[in-house]
Design brief:
binds pyridoxal-5'-phosphate, four-stranded mixed beta sheet, Aspartate Aminotransferase, domain 2, Aspartate Aminotransferase, domain 1, 19% strand, 2 domains, seven-stranded mixed beta sheet
């Protein structure tokens, strides 16, 4: 059997990782400024993560939600404390798309409505509902297009007001910062309006923090920079540092009922061990602070680079617009061994582990400045 060939991937076979360093089967070393789509939060092969996972495998790797699992309760408590959402409730699942799918379903159950307002340029995943609120028709099959979704421009408050006007909307869903679309931020005013308009029109405000959450932007969730609270928050990527785990964080106003949601693998023992190791390391090593400081540092060092058309983002979620982005990205990899991501044909996307060091950030800055021919002072 061969692989169903859907990925346009580099011909590099990675076999080892430590912190922000990764290496391939030929012994080539790379600096990871992408974290495998922003998944690596506390660093590759983190010792506490290995300890927790190894210990858990010796105890119990998996059992389903047919039994009470107090590791889920401990994880929910810790997540509540670190995120500031301690009065909310947690549903555990396995991937970002699944988290969004469940968030939409919860909003629809709670409001009795079906229409969703989403933002142009959004990416929310590839399952049916998540794809319907993703603004990319190329990814949708006929099967996915039947949902009741209205797309509005990011930061267009009058359009949001209009979309909610008939009181027939179950939820408004916004990424904390749009990732796939090239690191595009909702303004604080837009988020504040979304919070109050959703209350007025009895719609749920869902914040998709799958890429922008878990400390990535210098706060636990990106929307917390705007000082708002969401009704539902979805999270995945950095949550398990590579182990598949995702969550739907749900307001106490929304009541659960037996059978409302469910999953076989979600919240299993090994996933909870990964989730706990991540939260403990984020707290212990003050990684949110690190993301904040090093993100600010990186942006301030690059802001005068004339090759940069725009630089956006917060913390360690950074987008850099460049005329010849694909060439620079290729050179970063081939000449300097630095992995980065991209959005479209112009945005270089940086999502390094939150544990990245200043020395490693300097390594990126020097390579980038040399490639864009700016002499360092
Ligand atoms: C904001 C956002 N939401 C949802 C998803 C989908 O997550 P997954 O690929 O785990 O289904 C992604 C993935 O890139 C994402 O960036």
């Amino acid at each position: 059997m061969e692989l169903f060939n859907v990925y346009n991937c580099y011909d590099i076979n990675l076999v080892n990782g430590k912190g922000s360093s990764i290496s391939d089967d030929k012994g080539n070393k790379y600096l990871d400024f992408y974290g495998g789509h922003g998944v690596i939060s506390i660093g590759h092969s983190h010792p506490h993560y290995i300890f927790r996972m190894e210990h858990q495998l010796h105890c119990l790797g998996f059992y389903s939600n047919a039994v009470r699992n107090d590791m889920q309760e401990k994880l929910a408590n810790k997540l509540g404390t670190l995120s500031g959402y301690d009065d909310y409730n947690l549903f555990l699942c396995n991937s970002g798309a699944e988290a969004n799918e469940n968030a939409l379903k919860v909003a629809s159950f709670h409001t009795g409505k079906s229409k969703i307002v989403a933002i142009k340029g959004a990416f929310h995943g590839r399952s049916s509902g998540a794809l319907a609120i993703t603004d990319n028709p190329v990814l949708s099959s006929e099967f996915n297009v039947k949902h009741d979704v209205v797309f509005i421009e990011m930061n267009d408050i009058p359009a949001l007001e209009k979309a909610l006007g008939k009181n027939d909307v179950a939820a408004v869903i916004i990424e904390g910062i749009q990732g796939v679309n090239g690191v595009v931020e909702p303004s604080a005013d837009f988020l504040k309006s979304a919070e109050s308009l959703c209350k007025t029109h009895k719609a749920m405000l869902i914040l998709d923090e799958i890429q922008s959450g878990y400390g990535r932007t210098g706060k636990f969730f990106a929307h917390q920079h705007a000082g708002i609270k969401a009704d539902i928050i979805t999270t995945a990527k950095g949550m398990g540092n590579g182990f598949p785990i995702a969550g739907v964080i749900i307001s106490p106003e929304i009541k659960a009922w037996s059978g409302m949601l469910g999953t076989t693998f979600g919240g299993n023992h090994l996933a909870c061990a990964a989730g706990m190791a991540v939260l403990e390391s984020i707290e212990e090593e003050q990684l949110i602070d690190n993301a904040n400081k090093l993100g600010d540092y990186l942006i301030s060092e690059l802001k005068d680079n004339k090759a940069i058309k725009a630089i956006r983002g917060k913390g360690l979620m950074i987008g850099i617009d460049l005329e010849d982005m694909p060439k620079i990205r290729k050179q970063l990899l081939e000449e300097y061994g630095i992995f980065t991501g991209s959005s479209g044909s112009t945005t270089l996307r940086l999502l390094p582990p939150l544990s990245i060091t200043k020395k490693e950030v300097d390594q990126f800055i020097q390579a980038f400045q040399k490639l864009t021919q700016i002499v360092l002072t």
